[in-house]
Amino acid sequence: MSPPASEQPPSRRAFFELTFGWLAATFAVVASSVAAVKFLTPNVLYEPSLRFKAGRPGDYADGSVTFLEDERVFIVRQGNTYRCLSAICTHLGCTVNRAGAGYHCPCHGSVFNAQGQVEGGPAPRALEWFLVTLSKDNRLLVDKTERVAADKYLVL
Amino acid sequence: MNAPLPKRLWQWFVRSRVGRSVFRVGLPESNLERSQAMVSSFLLHLQPAKVSRHALKAGTTLGLGLISLYLFLILIGTGLLLMFYYVPSTDRAYDAMKDLQFVVSAGLVVRNMHRWAAHLMVLFVLLHLCRVFFTGAYKRPREFNWLIGTALFLLTLGLSFTGYLLPWDQLAFWAITVGTNIAGYAPVVGPRLKFLLLGGNVVGQEALIRFYALHVIVLPAVAGLLVAIHLWRVRKDGGLSRPDEPADLVEQVEQSRLPTNKTYGLMELARGTTPLVGRNPEDDVFSWPHLVFREVLLFLAVVAVVMFLAVFWNAPLEQVANPVHPPNPAKAPWYFLGLQELVSYSAFWGGVVVPGLLVAVLVLLPYLDRGRAGVGRWFARERVVANTVFALCLAAAIVLTVIGSLFRGPNWSWQVPWQPPPAAGGEP
């Protein structure tokens, strides 16, 4: 049995009480949910810096592709030009290996050419190129937060 | 009375003042006491005082849900033991695994039991899901319990996945790298979800402690609560599905119609106008001892099998995690290998769309498939279409899993199964 339908509209007091109650309850739920997500989102990361120095330009031989283990990038030197290629596969984040002139991912078999473009496998995007500049103390400075086109070089 | 000595000792104990304070009934002698034994015990009262012969037959459920529950209990027991040695730190986690293997008394067996019980639980929860489908037991009025079961299936996978990272070996590190990158493909929330899950951009210390907290308290607590509701709802929704269910079972259950014409002193509280609606009283037997005996026996069998596996086969432990060198091939746990095979074609379709659709179908199934024909019978003719579709999906999943497990070698290229792996992967 449902309760008998009320003929009377709710009183002004009941209306305000209901409205305020629901507003307060909604606010409490939303605010504590937002706070919980914010709490779980780290504000400081204890990870390797995304901007790092990669040694002197002269450390890299002409025509060489050098893998930096800690940063998971390749430094590519051709003549007097320097570039930095991400070694993280765009598919599912494994570290790619050099294979011939290009790169190969061991996890799901993606193949990239020397320019980082996808030649085969499931990778959805080309490998990323990062901005390389020269620091005041004459070191290569890589900024992984700055993505650049494959044909953008640091020329020395 | 010439009972054996242990029984006489037990009877003397339960009749003593102390025994009475613990066990209200003791070893039951009459049918009334058999009912009271079930109702007066916290652990037993989850089950009915009487149970139909159909429910007791091995072929009705194959005991799959109960086996899953027992594996969950074994996992809690062995997991608690492992917690006394394990440290969720990237510096010490792998050493703790080595200690368990070589230093701690019985440490190896406890870890092996935990590992094999975890694998078996994934398997048996899946088999239980298949049983419920093929007997049509998810249909009205049991739709909500199917939803809870689906949630428990996903929680089982989540528990297994979070536990996979904890040894901090190569297997762990790369399986979690691949798995969390799949989560990153989810539309809109993906990247943020991945960042929250890992507590950063890469799998590191923050990810390890997050997975640990999820694995040892958050997910087990939620799963434990849902298991309790799952079992409770089995009873409240009319018991195990049977071919001879009363015609008005749905109305009885959904309207929570409690009988008004009988006393509550009798132990046989069933919904309906009489305690034995639609059933022949001869079909029912007392749960004590018929059901309880079978349950204890099954528990012993499950423990025995898990211990047997743990004594003869060691859980894998590869080299310590190395973020620079992925193993070749890097493989997820076996139950995700079908998914990984799909992901090797397309991360978005294989990692997000297909599993998302599967979960959506599982959740909506009892509300879409509304007829009640064929409930309680295996592979009922009335359900031939649904059963065939389900069997085809299952076969596809098995084929993909087998391909991913056995036919994929280095570089995820095709290989003949059981070949010795090549000595080393490519150099970066």
Provide structural commentary.
The complex is a heterodimer of chains A (156) and B (428). Chain A has 1 helix and 11 strands; from the N terminus they run αβββββββββββ. With 156 residues, chain A is of the alpha+beta class. The model of chain A has no long low-confidence stretch (mean pLDDT 89). Chain B is 60% helix and 1% strand. Chain B is built from 17 helices and 2 strands. In chain B, helix 9 runs antiparallel to helix 16. Chain B is globular, with a radius of gyration of 25 Å. Chains A and B meet through strand 5 of A and helix 10 of B.
Q: Please give the order of strands in the largest beta sheet of chain B.
A: 1-2
Class per helix and strand makeup of chain A: alpha+beta
The structural class of chain B is mainly alpha
Strand content of chain B: under 5%
The total count of helices of chain B amounts to 17
Largest sheet of chain B at a glance? 2 strands, antiparallel
Through-space gap between termini of chain A: 87 Å
> How far from one another are the termini of chain B?
81 Å
Number of strands of chain B: 2
Largest interface: A-B, 28 and 38 residues
Q: What coarse outline of chain B follows from CA principal-axis ratios?
A: globular
Rg for CA atoms of chain B: 25 Å
Largest sheet of chain A: 7 strands, antiparallel
Q: Helix-strand pattern of chain B, N to C?
A: HHHEHHHHHHHHHHEHHHH
